[in-house]
Amino acid sequence: MSKAGIISPCRSIKDKLGRIVSLRPYGEEDFNGLFEMYDEFQPKRKAMGLPPAQDGNRHKWITQIVEEWFNIVAIQEDRIVGHAALDRPVGANAREFMIFIHQDYQNKGIGQALTFSMLDAAKVMDCKKVWVVVENMNRIAITVFKKAGFNFVGEPDVERVMLFKP
Ligand SMILES: CC(C)(COP(=O)(O)OP(=O)(O)OC[C@H]1O[C@@H](n2cnc3c(N)ncnc32)[C@H](O)[C@@H]1OP(=O)(O)O)[C@@H](O)C(=O)NCCC(=O)NCCS
Description:
- The protein is α+β, with helices and mostly antiparallel strands.
- The chain has helices spanning 31-40, 55-68, 110-124, 139-148, and strands spanning 11-14, 20-25, 70-76, 79-86, 94-101, 129-135, 151-153, 159-164.
- Residues 1-6 have low confidence and may be disordered.
- Coenzyme A (COA) binds at residues 46-47, 98-101, 106-112, 132, 134, 138-141, 143-144.
């Protein structure tokens, strides 16, 4: 989805190591950098089987996400170190959320900042619900999503849906 001037979640944060990280909507110029981030990302298939391990499948997945979803990237010294995306609206403007932070940058506060930026964008887009699927063992993701205002729906299971209502 084009950034089309709908929102401007542009901001800079300092991560927990004091590094300046910029957050902004994805642009075409970020395509190669995003490929690089996911090519380097380890372990592959970390969250719900993503990012895909096989190069062709991974590249197809990234291409589809940047073409069809609304995307925000986190950049440190010209390198993409994080990526969050919001799917096209389904039904009454409910959208799926996903987020990946490069393993060298995880647990430094970037995921929380990126999640907050995306939820701000969702509000501007008049989104009624944002949902994310997370594995029960992914405690760090659950911490981040709860801090951002997501709540579990449904019974406890290996995979859980978490919902945010702007
Ligand atoms: C999940 C993910 C997006 C979180 O982003 P991040 O930048 O690593 O997380 P942050 O540093 O912003 O925040 C992590 C929080 O979890 C806490 N945390 C870390 N390890 C934890 C654990 N094992 N259990 C519970 N909380 C934990 C941290 O203390 C921190 O909270 P605090 O700021 O209150 O101290 C990132 O780790 C990631 O990309 N993981 C792999 C992909 C993934 O799982 N994506 C989510 C599914 S779509």
